[in-house]
Recover the amino acids of this structure.
């Protein structure tokens, strides 16, 4: 039981790190720009498909991953300049409808270019092994690398936001966007920077997860819902909150699916416990969100109003 718990704990941390890479950009866009972007999940999907193509072109997953970063940055920049910039002053309903339409357009384009069949990326040979944790438990090296890279990315993002002038403007914009504009900051340029950087983080997450999961046109939909749950739990506009919320969601989702049926066996018959556990496990994340919002309506690190 201890080995299973440690294994699922690491899986939950790894899942949480990937959610953070997606939610970090989304919380900045939502918190600072007050823009509801339902197309953020398809950028994650595009990053996964791009790493498939770049890996095939270069013969190296590492090179493919490096190429995904500027490619998704440019993709996000193009979306912001051509589409999203025209929607900033529109009501949230218009933003939801427009970005939902964009989701369908990009998904269809992906199916035309890559096809509807699931694709996969071969695991890098140097990272394809596993290391011992607690005998006889072993854990894949690549998943540990995902955790390490995600933590380094979170640290770098924290340093940028708390130690640089751009970060100061981001924090100020999250607090009072109108005042920042009145002080002479180019809000349009700041929005473009935020959106392009958020798109790069989402594409990076998709590229990192490609060797672990299959790459398919619907992979961005479920993760977008969880990303919104993360930023609501952590507090809209707070990157620190996004990190804490992502880890909480990742751990609750992973541990709940593994140990929910086991816990329910203490109260129900094994067959009923298994069925109830499968039904309740997907609900645990939303129950967690409801509890946190009942206690802290602004989220864990959201600004109190």
């Amino acid at each position: 039981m201890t080995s299973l718990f440690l294994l699922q704990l690491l899986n939950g941390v790894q899942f949480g790190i990937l959610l953070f890479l997606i939610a970090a950009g989304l919380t900045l866009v939502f918190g600072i720009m007050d823009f509801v972007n339902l197309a953020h999940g398809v950028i994650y999907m595009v990053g996964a498909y791009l790493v498939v193509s770049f890996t095939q072109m270069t013969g190296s997953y590492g090179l493919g991953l490096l190429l995904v970063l500027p490619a998704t940055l440019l993709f996000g920049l193009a979306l912001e300049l051509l589409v999203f910039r025209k929607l900033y002053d529109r009501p949230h309903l218009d933003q939801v409808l427009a970005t939902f339409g964009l989701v369908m357009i990009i998904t269809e384009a992906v199916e035309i270019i890559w096809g509807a069949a699931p694709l996969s990326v071969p695991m890098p040979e140097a990272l394809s092994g596993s290391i011992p944790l607690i005998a006889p438990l072993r854990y894949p090296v690549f998943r540990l690398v995902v955790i390490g890279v995600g933590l380094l990315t979170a640290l770098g993002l924290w340093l940028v936001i708390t130690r640089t002038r751009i970060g100061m403007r981001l924090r100020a914009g999250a607090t009072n966007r109108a005042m920042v504009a009145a002080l002479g900051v180019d809000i349009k340029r700041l929005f473009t920077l935020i959106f392009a950087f958020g798109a790069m983080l989402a594409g990076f997450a998709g590229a990192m997860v490609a060797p672990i999961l299959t790459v398919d046109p619907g992979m961005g939909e479920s993760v977008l819902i969880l990303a919104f749950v993360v930023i609501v739990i952590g507090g809209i506009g707070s990157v620190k909150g996004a990190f804490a919320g992502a880890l909480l969601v990742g751990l609750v989702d992973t541990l709940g699916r593994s140990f929910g049926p086991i816990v329910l066996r203490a109260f129900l018959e094994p067959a009923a416990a298994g069925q109830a556990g499968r039904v309740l496990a997907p609900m645990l994340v939303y129950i967690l969100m409801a509890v946190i919002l009942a206690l802290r309506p602004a989220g864990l690190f959201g600004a109190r109003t």
Q: What stands out?
A: The first strand starts at residue 130 and ends at 132. The CA atoms of residues 19 and 226 lie 8 Å apart.
